[in-house]
Amino acid sequence: MTELIWEGKYKDGKRVAPVRIALPLQTIETINESAQDRQRTLDLFASGRESEWRNRLIWGDNKYVLPSLLAEFAGKVNLIYIDPPFDTGADFSFTATVPDHPDTPEDDSFAFTKEPSIIEQKAYRDTWGKGADSFITMIYERLVLMRDLLAEDGAIVIHMGDKVASLVRLVTADVFGENNYRNTIIIPRGIKNVQSQFKDVRGLSVGHDVLIFFSKSEGSRVKKLSLPGAESSPGKWDTFWRGTDRPTMRYELFGIRPNSGQWRWSRERAEQARRNFDEYLRAFAKFLDLADDVKAFAKLPEVFGFAIDYTDGAGNLRAYYPDFVAVDEQGTNWLLETKGQETEETKHKDNAATLWCENASQLTSKAWKYLKVPQQEFERLHPETLADLGALLPTEQCR
User: How confident is the model over 132-148, as pLDDT tens digits?
Assistant: First the structure.
């Protein structure tokens, strides 16, 4: 098995564990605390019971702060976000010039250099002095302690720049396990456009940072994210809503009357399309019932809750609800999609359904295939068996 090795990871053949000295924390100041609350805190402390609190701002090196939190919070933290130094090597000092005073005959102008303070050196400057090995050691020691603080369904998000993001990604996998890697999230930031004055440059400008996202355990789940207004109601008409705002196109359909936006079609056209599609669904169910090579099939109702997540053209997460599942005489499982009118979302759903079948085949060791059956093709072909559809539909629809 491949392993990330750095100087200081092992000593005498054994992995070096981080420091776990639990130093006592001392309260310096309590913000917005009334005299009554302060007395209550003192009484709880005097009685040996834990005092109540909501937030803590702890000053100190987190290498020594983290072990002090383990006794109270080990296995209880849901989310950890850290923003460690990016190992840029910058010292954040700057030179400033004070101009001459206009009312004096002498030249009083002078320049001074503002050196980084001890705190700024610790927080920002590359002060490890041993290169990447020392940087990784610093990150590793803290990640081990943070993993112990996390609950089993907890997660950690690490904000990094592009220079050392790959190293931090690998050392985090070393601590949390590669199977608990979830995402690398790209976040934009400003670009200093100083390259336009040159004909060639050493490297391209970097306009992003990354968030490296790991969970503590493989079984943890996160809520899906979407842009405002991107959430849709489950069902075959989930892309029938538009964000444009025409009050005359907001009528009741399937028991839903949107408060904003609009339906894509007029009410008469939408009702007719619904009737046509309902007839197609009944005809397709009858076809599956009579097909000699179909051993079993089922219509997947929405209340069953089977959905496949996919990303639409705008990058939003959506849910796709397939229509039918069937098993043929060869034992192949089919995920069947009856399609009326295709939209720009159709290809994204097709890709997600195809990937789902590939994953299901690998996980169950049973064959799964995705088949999209457009209404016009079904009515033109008049198939009698499932094999007829697989043989006659275009290749990309017979995956």
Answer: 788 888 899 999 999 99
Domain boundary among 215, 232, 262: 215
Domain containing 49 — which CATH number? 3.40.50
Q: pTM of this prediction?
A: 0.50
Both 15 and 140 in a single domain?
A: yes
Q: CA angle, 163 as apex, 160 and 164 as ends, to 5°?
A: 60
Taken in order 44, 45, 46, 48, is the CA torsion positive or negative? positive
CA-angle at 315, arms to 79 and 159, nearest 5°? 35
Q: Which residue has the higher pLDDT, 37 or 238?
A: 37
Would you say residue 300 lies in a domain? yes
What's the gap between Cα 62 and its chain centre? Answer: 26
Distance (Å, whole) CA 240 – CA 264: 6
Distances (CA, A) of 361 to 168, 312, 383: 34, 24, 26
Tokens, residue 84: 């460690």
pLDDT band at residue 179 using 50, 70 and 90 as cut-offs: very high
Domain count, the chain: 2
Measured on CA atoms in the order 257, 263, 268, 272, is the torsion positive or negative?
Answer: negative
Q: Is pLDDT at 249 greater than 90 in this prediction?
A: no
pLDDT at 94 over 60: no
Query: In terms of residue numbers, what domain contains 66?
Result: 10-89+126-215
- The helix/strand/coil state of 61 is coil
DSSP 220-287: --------TT----SSTTTTSEESS--GGG---BTTB--SSSEESS-HHHHHHHHHHHHHHHHHHHHH
Tokens representing 60 are: 């100190």
Give the best-scoring range by mean pLDDT among 174-178, 279-283, 320-324, 335-339. 174-178
